[in-house]
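re: that chain from earlier
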Amino acid sequence: MKRKFHSFFWHCALVVFLALTFSGWGVESAVALLRQHHDSPGVLRYHSQVSIKDKQGYAWQVLLFKQNYNHPVRDLRLRLVGFPGVVEIAHPQPLLIEATSGKLLSASDAYALTAPAPNVGEYELTDVLPKLPTTDALKLYVPVKGEKPLVLNIPQSVVTEWQWLVTEID
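^ sequence. v structure.
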């Protein structure tokens, strides 16, 4: 009897192990990272940061954060930082955002007049993010000088994190 129980236990353990191992293969890993920083002594703020490669293989830093914590309505900003000397963002053109459903939204350029560097863009997402589906990946059409817009593919896991940052973290 003890031997049967021991054998049954190990068979069950093996089945559970295999189920957990193989079920993880189809899951897309999250590439975004919620980070906290000190805005002032004793005040923590959170932002979502991810590195996304474009078609040419250059990494872009994609950063979503809340701004104006002292106001009832907090602005949401999306900062895009491209590889220096390789790309120049065309200001003051808007960022176009496309969901997999084909829905197209526009985010205005927060750096319309002065950008800290030619490879940096920042866009107002306060009114845009609530209109985006939470279960879709996105395409960002970044306006760049002298070319058609550069496309950044944002995975669904990052979009979910953005929505979570907006609704759950204060």
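Strands lie at 33-40, 43-53, 59-67, 75-81, 95-99, 104-107, 120-124, 138-142, 150-154.
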